[in-house]
Specification:
six-stranded mixed β-sheet, 20% strand, elongated
Length: 229
């Protein structure tokens, strides 16, 4: 498998996550210390609020770029073994992670939450995660389906703008849970939803069942970067 990655962007965002988390801890501790002095209650409250906001920023960046291995490394590892008919673009395309190959055009949407992930016919559900982890360890599950739609639409707009009139394969969003503690059971979800360790098998199966010709993908491959930085 060919990999085209923007390592500079990954490293920059990882530093933002680390610095934001460190700064939030310092500010929270300072705000807590100020709370012991009644004359500084307003200042203490302000510091605690800023610290909490920074912690959310740090969590956002850390979940995406700071955890070891990084989510992009987990995706790359999960696809290891695919041949050179496949190309994985990490932060070098209109979306964070794009897989182009015999399976078609797949927008890989990394999800960082742990626990048991299900789909009840209307929305995604998460179970098996404690309150502390929800508040401080990871983001809430939110609406993965809406996130998938957003990324897919970004890719479609890119194709429409840069390859007008071209008959391109369908853009398919795929929700990939990269957290080792995630267990996915969502066969009826509106989009392919799975753990990262199962991604390669699904890619190969789709490429075998409904292969997309390389000629159909050639305009997109030609348009996208050939190497990372």
């Amino acid at each position: 498998m060919k990999i085209v990655a923007n390592t500079k962007k990954i490293n920059r965002y990882r530093k933002i996550g680390n610095y934001s988390t460190l700064a939030s801890l310092v500010i929270l501790v300072g705000g807590f210390a100020l709370s012991f002095n009644g004359d500084n209650l307003n200042l203490s409250f302000g510091a605690l609020l800023v610290g909490l906001l920074l912690s959310q920023v740090g969590m956002y960046f850390t979940n995406r770029w700071g955890r070891m291995p990084h989510p992009d490394e987990r995706i790359t590892s999960g696809l290891k073994g695919l041949d050179d008919k496949y190309t994985l673009y990490n932060f070098t395309s209109p979306v964070q992670h794009l897989l182009v190959g015999p399976q078609g055009i797949w927008v890989l949407v990394p999800m960082y939450q742990g626990g048991r992930i299900t789909f009840d016919g209307k929305k995604y559900r998460q179970a098996g995660v404690g309150t502390f982890s929800r508040l401080f360890g990871q983001e809430s599950l939110g609406r993965p389906d809406m996130e998938a739609i957003s990324y897919a639409e970004d890719m479609k707009r890119y194709l429409k703008k840069n390859l007008p009139g071209q008959d391109m394969p369908e853009v398919r969003p795929v929700l990939v849970f990269t957290n080792p503690k995630a267990s996915v059971d969502a066969p009826d979800a509106p989009y392919i939803t799975l753990e990262v360790d199962k991604l390669k098998d699904v890619v190969r199966r789709r490429a075998k069942e409904a292969p997309v010709r390389s000629e159909a993908l050639a305009p997109l491959v030609e348009l996208l970067p050939k190497e990372g930085n």
